[in-house]
Amino acid sequence: MNDPTFIIRSMTREEINTALDWAQDEGWNPGIFDADAFHAADEEGFLIGMLGDEKVAMISAIRYGEKFGHIGFYVVKPEYRGKGYGLQLWQAALDRLQGRMIGVDSVLTKREQYARSGFHFAHRNIGYRCKGGGLMPPMALCEKIVSMPFLSLDDIIAYDRDFFPEARRDFFQKWISIPYSTVIGMKENGKLVGFGVMRPCREGMKIAPLFADTPEIAETLFMIMRAQTREEENIFIDMPESNPLALDLAKRYGMEIVFETARMYTQNIPNLAISRTYGVTSPELG
Question: CB under 8 Å to 210, separation ≥6 — which residues?
Answer without folding.
Answer: 195, 196, 218, 221, 222, 237, 277, 278, 279
